[in-house]
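Board notes (copied after class):
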Amino acid sequence: MKTKTEHGVREAAWAAADHTLGDTHAGLTLLEYGDYECPACIQAAPLTKHLVEAFGKRLCFVYRHYPLIEVHPHAELAAEAAEAAAAQGQFWAMHRLLFSQPHHMALTALAAHAQSIGLDVIRFKAEMADRIYTQRVQEHRRAGEKSGIRATPSFFLNGTPVDVSFGLEKLEEAVHLALHTAPQPFQQHS
């Protein structure tokens, strides 16, 4: 199993609770700590999707939950919904849906999302009622706190923080630089 370092905290890169896209054996790992209600995370979602599609064989994208429950009251529940979907093999479908419909995160809307992606809705509702994924979401958050996370989205490229506070183009530039490729500016389509 590969290991990475995030601010001196050694942990398995592909921990059981991690969700990955791209080649897990790639030389470059992009880790995001995100929140489904965070406007900046919503803006980052198309870029991370683009990076995975463009560099899938050379890049592994890892997503971890970092719900900012103090300012986003539905973020933790949405993260739990993504984990409930993951338990049925549909994490990425729910992940995309949550970022595309950020104003629909009440429990009834999450159940409708589950139905729309073909989940066993009875199982989904029971798991959500029992809050069985709360601990997993909180473990992601604690790992982020140990890494010095204070805001979302927060990105690490092979364990090194990437500052996107001055714009998401810094993330794309960092990936291109790490892969020694010429940047092709990402154009978000409306």
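Comment from the instructor: The chain has a mean pLDDT of 87. The chain is about 45% helix and 15% strand.
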